[in-house]
Each structure stands twice: as structure tokens, then as C-alpha cells.
Amino acid sequence: MAIISSIILFFDQFTKYLVEKQIRLYDVITVIPGFFNLTHVRNKGAAFSLFSNASDSFRSVFFLTVTIIAVIVIAMMIRKTHDGTLIVAFSFIMGGALGNAVDRVRYGEVVDFIQWYYKSYYWPSFNIADSAITVAVVLLAFDMLFKKPEKTAKTSNHDFQR
């Protein structure tokens, strides 16, 4: 768990460092015309700029509190499971949450730089931390939807036959 979260945190912070050093704020570098850019933007809010208009003090307290609670809850969930998929997913969420929390402590906002678009339709810019959280949510969804339930000692085939 700690290794995976640390790797996510490292790559998130390293890529943000590169963006800050190589791309001026609001500049755009076209990577794949009509599809993918690298840009340097800042997001004061959460996903899709949620709470971006709230006061700086509210955002700081709110986001750091939510992150601390999330990290504690995720750590407890990881301790309770032996399922590799869940451990990886929770570790990705933790690494992503910590990556964005570091930005919030340092800048009061999050550095975003990945920009997907098609013609005039743009997806909101995001970063490695956001990507890790998204991958984790997909893993959790697949786990919930497609994993066969395990039989417990109390459950037998007889319980389902009538």
C-alpha cells in the first residue's frame, strides 16, 4: 500500500514540477492536434472546479480535512482487506489524494496540465493524482460489478435452494 501510494505521489509531484519549470502559467503545448495538449493551469476547487468560488480559508480547511479523513478511512479499509485489487485501488486513491493535498498546502490550489479535447469540446484539465483516483474508481467499479461473491462459512448452496 505505502509503496504504491508513494509511487503515485512521486510521479504526480514530479510531473507537476516539470510543468511548473517548463510551461508558463496558461501556456498550451499541442501534443496531438485536435485531441491532446499539455497546459499549465491552476484549480482552486475540487473536480470540475467545485468550490472554486469559496473563500481561500474555507477551501484550505475543507480540502485538508476531507483529505485527512479520506486517508484515515482508506488506511483502515486497506487493513481490513486481503483483496489485491482493492488494495491497489485504495492505494491509488490515497496517492492521488496526497498528491493534490501537497499542492493545496504549497499553493492553495492544484496544478493541472493534462488537457483532452475534440474540436471545441474540452474536458477539464487534470493531473496524475486525478488520473490515479479515476483509475481506482474504475477498478472498484469492475470489482463490484464483475467479481463473483465469495462463499462464507455460513453460506452454502443449500441456503439458496428451495
Please explain how this structure is put together:
This protein has 162 residues and is an alpha+beta fold. The chain has one domain (2-146). It is 57% helix and 15% strand. It has five helices and four strands; from the N terminus they run H-E-E-H-H-E-E-H-H. It has a four-stranded antiparallel beta sheet. Strand 1 and strand 2 form a beta hairpin. Helix 3 (84-107) runs antiparallel to helix 4 (128-146). It is globular, with a radius of gyration of 19 Å.
Strand arrangement within the widest β-sheet reads 1-2-3-4
Number of helices: 5
Question: Helical percent range?
Answer: 55-70%
What is the percentage of strand-forming residues? 5-15%
Sketch the topology as an H/E string, one letter per element.
HEEHHEEHH
Overall radius of gyration = 19 Å
Q: What is the total domain count?
A: 1
Give the overall shape, derived from the CA principal axes: globular
Query: What ranges have pLDDT less than 50 throughout 5 or more consecutive residues?
Result: none
How would a textbook summarize the main sheet? 4 strands, antiparallel
How many β-strand stretches? 4
Query: How far apart, in Å, are the first and last alpha carbons?
Result: 43 Å
Please summarize what this structure is:
The protein is an alpha+beta fold and 162 residues long. Helices cover 57% and strands 15% of the residues. Helix 1 (2-22) runs parallel beside helix 3 (84-107), helix 2 (56-80) runs antiparallel to helix 3 and helix 3 (84-107) packs antiparallel against helix 4 (128-146).
